[in-house]
Design brief:
Elements lengths: L2 H30 L5 H19 L1 H27 L8 H34 L3 H17 L1 H13 L10 H4 L11 H11 L6 H25 L4 H9 L5 H10 L4 H6 L1 H25 L5 H26 L1 H21 L7 H29 L4 H23 L4 H39 L12
Helix pairs in contact: 1-2, 1-3, 1-4, 1-5, 1-6, 1-9, 2-4, 2-17, 3-4, 3-9, 3-10, 3-11, 4-5, 4-17, 5-14, 5-16, 6-9, 6-14, 13-16, 13-17, 13-18, 14-15, 14-16, 15-16, 15-18
């Protein structure tokens, strides 16, 4: 097997194990730790910490320790969060949420940097276009990684399903489900509160689940530490950049914002944070739990994760033939259709297949943002990958923080309109970047017309 592909698989399965644990815990926070809003507060704290981490840590840690050991150290922060859930309280969950947040941005920045480097190394060996190999590697990664949602939700459903007893949904509650669900005021508030008043499972089941998740996290750390190989060219770059000051490394994240392309593209990860927060926080609560019951959430999220995973692999291969613009267009059109339909739909228990259709379509679109955004940032900012991916995680975390921040104050239909607005602006900004890139690519062709080189054929680009 090609060494680059082997390392991609090691990273992919390491993240699969880690996020099988973390994803399952994240989806359960508001239910397991609902007392005094501890779970929601922990998630808000977590993403706020990721936001700060994105601004300061990734370039410094990656250049100091390399991608491999940055991934290992960051994974340990995730394991600490799992341990904090054994005895969830303000004194255990909030500190471990902060710790996870500090490791979150370096984890993803180092992973994106590592895969981009592997893709470029393989492209040099095989003579293929670097962006095509990078796109393929990200497709493989997200195929494996996104399946973590399947296993994480399946584990929690099997563990807690031992005592789950489906409850009939009152007709009065169904009237407030969907886009009409509002967290404040009068009847809507009372119904919303009753729909979220879930009994905490037996402690022995909680310990069993958290123990399984912790074991998955430990296995992920061991897999990366033992089997992942550091990239040679990254080590050479670290040696060349050791003379750079610490302050310069920290500021590199912000210095890259002087690039007009990045200023426009940050809206894509911002929207990614908004749409993921809506799915996990609002669709599961205001649509699935409200109309079907909490016991269906895991199965609906499994459908989303499975579709997301399969589409991630598909887009990695398909983009080589269609180009990224067509893939982005598919993602935007799919989400636009879903958001419009969710504004109009009145969820009912007898419409069970529709709940899964929406989660599947959301996965079709989310796979676009996950694969293409990473490839786009790695391709356009190849010389500043660490800073570019740090910005990516910063703005995605900001989307999560803002979405979770207004979640308890706005009605669902208002959140959907916000999603529509952010999506429209993000796609317009992306279109502007593609126009800038097309003009930049056209300039060398103009010079060749003045002084043609007979030994070179015409160049094409997507």
């Amino acid at each position: 097997m090609d060494p680059s592909l082997k390392n991609v698989l090691v990273v992919s399965f390491g993240f699969l194990l880690l996020f099988t644990a973390y994803g399952g815990l994240q989806n359960l926070q508001s239910s397991l730790n609902s007392e005094e809003g501890l779970g929601v507060t922990a998630l808000s704290t977590l993403y706020g910490s990721i936001l700060l981490s994105s601004m300061l840590l990734p370039p410094v840690l990656i250049k100091r320790f390399g991608c491999k050991w940055t991934i290992v150290g960051s994974m340990c922060c995730y394991v600490a969060f799992s341990l904090g859930n054994f005895k969830a309280s303000w004194y255990t969950l909030i500190p471990t949420s902060i710790l996870l947040g500090l490791g979150g941005a370096p984890l993803w920045s180092s992973q994106c940097t590592y895969i981009t480097i592997l893709g470029n190394i393989n492209a040099e060996k095989t003579g293929r276009a670097g962006k095509d190999v990078v796109n393929q590697y990200f497709g493989i990664f997200f195929l494996i990684f996104q399946s973590s949602g399947v296993w994480g939700n399946l584990i929690s459903s099997l563990v807690f399903g031992q005592t789950a007893t489906p409850e009939s949904i009152p007709q009065e509650q169904l009237l407030s489900c969907g886009a009409s669900d509002c967290p404040t005021g009068g009847v809507s508030n009372s119904s919303s509160s009753s729909s979220n008043s879930i009994q905490r499972p037996a402690e022995n089941l909680v310990y069993t689940l958290v123990g399984i998740y912790t074991g998955f996290g430990v296995l992920a750390v061991l897999l990366i530490a033992v089997f992942l190989e550091p990239t040679k060219n990254l080590q050479q770059r670290r040696e060349e950049e050791q003379k750079t000051s610490l302050l310069s490394n920290i500021l590199s994240t912000f210095k890259l914002l002087r690039d007009k392309r990045l200023c426009l593209l940050v809206l894509l990860p911002l929207y990614s944070g908004f749409e993921q927060a809506f799915l996990s926080g609002d669709y599961t609560k205001s649509y699935v739990t409200c109309a079907l019951g909490i016991h269906f959430v895991g199965y609906v999220m499994i459908c989303f994760a499975a579709t997301d995973s399969l589409c991630s692999l598909l887009y990695g291969k398909l983009s080589q033939y269609t180009g990224r613009i067509a893939i982005y267009g598919l993602g935007a059109l799919t989400h636009l259709s879903c958001i419009t339909a969710l504004l109009l739909w009145k969820p009912r228990p007898e419409q069970l297949p529709v709940f899964f259709v929406f989660s599947a379509l959301w996965g079709v679109s989310d796979a676009v943002w996950q694969t293409q955004n990473n490839t786009l940032f790695g391709t356009l900012f190849e010389k500043n990958k660490e800073a570019a991916f740090a910005n990516y995680r910063l703005w995605e975390a900001l989307g999560f923080v803002v979405a979770f921040g207004y979640s308890t104050y706005l009605c669902v239909h208002v959140k959907l309109y916000i999603l529509l607005g952010v999506l429209a602006v993000a796609m317009a900004a992306y279109g502007a970047v593609e126009v800038m890139e097309a003009r930049l690519q056209a300039k060398p062709l103009t010079m060749q017309e003045l002084d043609p080189a007979p030994d070179k054929g015409p160049q094409t680009h997507m």
